[in-house]
Design a protein that fits this description.
The complex is a heterodimer. By secondary structure, chain A is an alpha/beta fold. Chain A has one domain. Helix content of chain A is 23%, strand content 35%. Chain A contains twelve helices and 24 strands. Chain A is globular and about 65 Å long. Chain B is globular, with a radius of gyration of 22 Å. In chain B, helix 2 runs antiparallel to helix 7, helix 8 packs across helix 9 and helix 9 runs antiparallel to helix 10. Chain B has two domains: 388 residues, no CATH class; 56 residues, no CATH class. The chains are: A alpha/beta, B alpha/beta.
């Protein structure tokens, strides 16, 4: 037990703070705040209207505290700074103009932004607190007709696309946190893949919270036109603060006929200390609409951070023969809480969905899978397969499974399977007697447990995810 | 709607006050107090609405607005032994028969029981030496979260069945508790209550049946409590085949002592709206339970099963298999939760819900849930929704079977796993018939 405990309690290595001058607005939320944000970003009229509409909806809504299997003190929405940006020149002609301090920060996080060092074959949009600071490989992507830029830039450069798609997948009145995000979001990424284009490289956004007082509200919109393909990655970290911080993002995906979007997340927000002090509240709405025939949206997530995770990446399978996929590994340790899962709404004919969820609970954490598979009356031949497995490490944690299955069509086939167990003594014994150390054996078993999900991740991410999992669990296995 | 509900509540209040006044002299004071508390609880919470997560898929508006009235004491329906014969399980050597909630001694049989075993209606038990048993179990502090239906049952607690097995008693023949609904002057609301107490090392089989003598409307709101002592074994069948106009709300609670065994099989065939809540508490080491069931519904029917299997002690085992066959424009709901508390190590809990949709208008909402707070456990659940396999159909048809017959055969095959489990021939036969009748009906169309 002891040696393992030593291992687990490794420090969160992304917990540093960058000392940088920021441009902040006063804390608090009102119509004034929203107007101020909109003004700061020099937004066109329609954006302000969108925000205000969302804000008015939000005022009428209630925070979902009752149904999720999580507990936290009420968030004081007036005590958050809704806009915080590193001070710098408004437009950047090249990467050289980015504050070296910022470049250093991202380098430290393993995301080199400068030309010479850029990751091969991955274009990165780096978001620091409320704004996007840099986007790499923009020019190269442009040659293929792919638009990859910060959301603010998209609002100015491609207002028609934004107008056409923003809020169509996650409406402003969808839920409490989505409404809040729609009112105050500051930046994010925008991706547009035109007809028939296969995006030549992986696209990636890296989110970093730096300011202890601010929340992060980013918005991602990905549109894949007919017969296009894109793979998108998302990563995130935050410094260690004693105070809880709110991260309420909205991600909208739209896939038209024969298009495919693959969305991968490795979430490693600061999770708070062992006693649950501090950490990020990760209240996120992610949804993809398979609008076209034969379209496909695939979510892969590795959730290891955050004090509280509340997110249900979903697919609306509207087009005939469309496919939705959800692969998830959710790890909770110490006092973390996670209530996460997916929703698959089958509307079109012959739509298929596949859900694989692996939950690992350690310490005194609580990990819940909550998922909905809904087959509407018109979804002839819909097919779903769901597998949720939970692994418990220690006797103070909880693992829960709450699947909702609603079927109104008799040609549908829906299967759900779930198991909960601890690491098998037999497997452990087998590995130990082959001379493999306890920690390595546990790590091997856990990686095996998550294999079905890891193999869906892009190569670099898979390696990262495995390492992360090992690190997070160190010391909790005895 | 709101006004309607309020009126409904107050009509229950009027009936309740009349009943309390009437019973003031003949029933023990603790019971009157218990009923009053329950009535207050009911008035406070009312009938559950679909806003409540547990009732999300089942709308009880028709009951709330149904103008059902509690049966008055002495309301008698003419029914002879010949009329009841069809509803009796011939295997049972002792039985209690209730018609519209009223005990009928002349139709019942309480002889042929081993020494010390009590099978009695509440009125007899309250008056006799077994009052203390009733008091010990009925007057226990109730769950403060109890829902409106259960509270209403407790408020109208008057008639009921007591089965008491003293230490070591073995009753080999099944004991039948039959609750019949028959047409009455008013559309009756009936509140049956069953209490089964099996002391250590005792064993018995209980058949709890609900049926209607014709197609009339009725509202049954039953609560059944089973206490399984150390090393005792209770096998329990609940067969519900009320008329397709009936409303049936039932709750079955069981508590198991160390190494106690409880085996419940529920068969749901009737009622326009039925809801069966099940709560099994495994609070002592080595207890084991089976909670199995089959629901078979057709056009106009809605069957809802909500179960909670609560593991709070180590080394307990639970098995659950529920199968549903949905035909026509029917709807079924299954919600099964397995809760494993922090100290319930070495728990083995298996749960499975399988549904067969025979028509494109049927709808199923299933929600198997696991909540686990202990690490050394083996828990699994599964749920499926599907239809008959094309390949299997093709195989049978290619052997010369008519398509409809092939479908029937496969449907029967789907249910067989549960039918085979039933050890009582007459229930098995009934079930065979129910499945086949339904299937014949399909054939003729």
């Amino acid at each position: 037990m002891s040696s393992i405990e030593l291992l687990t309690n490794k420090e969160y290595k992304y917990g540093f703070v960058t000392d940088i001058e920021s441009d902040m607005i006063p804390r608090g939320l009102s119509e004034e705040t929203i107007r101020l944000i909109s003004e700061k970003k020099n937004e066109p009229e329609f954006m302000l209207d969108f925000r205000l509409k969302a804000y008015r909806n939000w005022l009428k809504m209630e925070e979902p505290q009752r149904w999720p299997n999580i507990t936290y003190p009420k968030v004081d929405y007036q005590d958050i700074i809704y806009y915080s940006a590193p001070k710098q020149k408004p437009t950047l002609a090249s990467m050289d103009e980015v504050d070296p301090e910022l470049i250093k920060t991202f380098e430290k996080l393993g995301i080199p932004l400068t030309e010479q060092k850029q990751l091969a074959n991955v274009a990165v949009d780096a978001v620091f607190d409320s704004v996007s600071v840099a986007t790499t490989y923009k020019e190269k992507l442009k040659k293929h007709g792919v638009i990859f830029c910060s959301f603010s830039e998209a609002v100015h450069e491609y207002p028609e696309l934004i107008k056409k798609y923003l809020g169509t997948v996650v409406p402003t009145n969808d839920n409490y946190f989505a409404a809040l995000n729609s009112a105050v979001f500051t930046d994010g990424s925008f991706v547009f893949i035109p007809k028939g284009v296969r995006c030549p490289m992986e696209l990636s956004t890296y989110f970093r919270i730096n300011n202890s007082e601010s929340g992060q509200f980013e918005r991602t919109l990905i549109i894949a036109e007919e017969n296009s393909h894109v793979s998108y990655l998302e990563g995130c970290t935050a410094p260690k603060f004693d105070k809880n911080q709110l991260h309420a993002a909205v991600v909208e995906l739209v896939a038209l006929d024969d298009a495919e979007i693959k969305y991968s997340t490795v979430q490693n927000w600061y999770a708070g200390d062992e006693e649950g002090k501090g950490g990020i509240y990760n209240f996120v709405t992610k949804r993809g609409a398979c609008r076209g025939r034969n379209s496909k949206i695939s979510w892969t997530q590795v959730e290891t951070g955050s004090a509280i995770t509340w997110k249900y990446p979903s697919c609306i399978l509207q087009g005939d023969n469309s496919i939705g996929e959800f692969y998830s590994v959710a790890l909770t340790n110490h006092a973390q809480q996670a209530d996460t899962g997916t929703k698959m709404i089958h509307i079109g004919k012959n739509t298929r969905s596949n859900i694989v969820s692996k939950g690992i609970s350690a310490g005194k954490s609580n990990n819940s899978y909550r998922g909905l598979v809904k087959v509407l009356a018109g979804a002839e031949g819909a097919r779903n397969y769901t597998q949720c497995d939970s692994l418990l490490i220690g006797d103070k944690c909880g693992a829960n499974t709450f699947p909702y299955i609603e079927v109104s069509n008799n040609t549908a086939k829906v299967e759900h399977e779930a198991t909960t167990s601890r690491i098998s003594e037999e497997q452990l014994f087998y590995l130990r007697q082959r001379g493999i150390s306890q920690e390595d054996a546990v790590s091997l078993i856990i990686n095996g447990f998550c294999k079905d999900v890891f193999r869906e991740l892009p190569m670099e991410f898979a390696v990262e995810a495995q390492r992360l999992l090992g690190m997070k669990l160190e010391g909790s296995v005895g | 709607m709101m006004a309607q509900a309020t009126k409904e509540k107050s009509s229950y209040r009027a009936a309740f006050d009349a009943m309390q006044a009437e019973d003031a002299r003949c029933l023990p004071a603790w019971l009157l107090r218990l009923r009053e508390t329950a009535m207050e609880r009911f008035e406070q919470v009312g009938f559950p609405t679909t806003d409540v997560e547990d009732w999300k898929y089942t709308n009880t508006g028709a009951i709330t607005k149904g103008a059902f009235a509690p049966v008055e004491a002495g309301a008698r329906v003419e029914l002879g032994a010949a009329d009841v014969a069809a509803f009796l399980a011939p295997e049972a050597s002792s039985r209690l028969v209730f018609v519209n909630g009223v005990y009928r001694a002349e139709l019942s049989a309480t002889e042929n029981l081993p020494e010390g075993v009590v099978v009695a209606d509440f009125a007899t038990a309250f008056a006799g030496e077994h009052e203390s048993i009733l008091r010990a179990y009925l007057a226990r502090p109730s769950d403060p979260e109890v829902d409106g239906f259960n509270a209403l049952n407790a408020a109208f607690l008057r008639e009921g069945a007591l089965v008491y097995l003293p230490r070591g008693a073995q009753v080999s023949a099944p004991i039948q508790l039959l609750f019949l609904s028959a047409p009455a002057t008013q559309t009756a609301a009936v509140f049956p209550r069953v209490l089964v107490v099996a002391e250590r090392e005792s064993a018995a089989t209980i058949i709890e049946s609900y049926a209607s003598t014709d197609e009339s409307r009725s509202f049954t709101n039953a609560v059944v409590e089973v206490f399984v002592g150390e090393n005792a074994r209770v096998t329990h069948y609940k067969v519900q085949r009320e008329s397709e106009a009936a409303f049936h709300i039932a709750k079955t609670n069981a508590e198991l002592e160390r190494s106690g065994v409880y085996d419940l099989t529920t068969i749901t065939l009737g009622a326009q709206l039925s809801r069966h809540g099940i709560g099994v508490k495994l609070a002592h080491e080595g207890a084991e339970c089976w909670v199995d069931g089959l629901y078979l519904v057709g056009t106009g029917q809605h069957a809802d099963t909500h179960s909670l299997i609560d593991h709070s002690s180590p080394h307990c085992t639970s098995h659950q298999l529920y199968k549903g066959i949905l035909d026509g424009k029917s709807r079924a709901v299954f919600n099964g939760k397995v809760f494993v508390h922090k100290d319930a190590q070495k728990t083995d809990a298996q749960q499975s819900n399988k549904n067969l949709l025979l028509s494109n208008e049927a709808r199923i909402d299933t929600k198997p849930q696991l909540e686990i707070y202990a690490d050394d456990v083996k828990c699994a659940h599964g749920a499926t929704v599907g239809q008959l396999e094309e390949e299997e159909l093709f195989y049978l048809v290619s052997r010369g079977l008519h398509t409809d017959l092939a479908r029937n055969l496969l449907t029967y095959g789907f249910a067989e796993e549960l039918v085979e489990k039933i050890k009582i021939e007459s229930i098995k036969r009934q079930l065979d018939e129910a499945i086949l009748n339904r299937l014949h009906a399909r054939l003729e169309v």
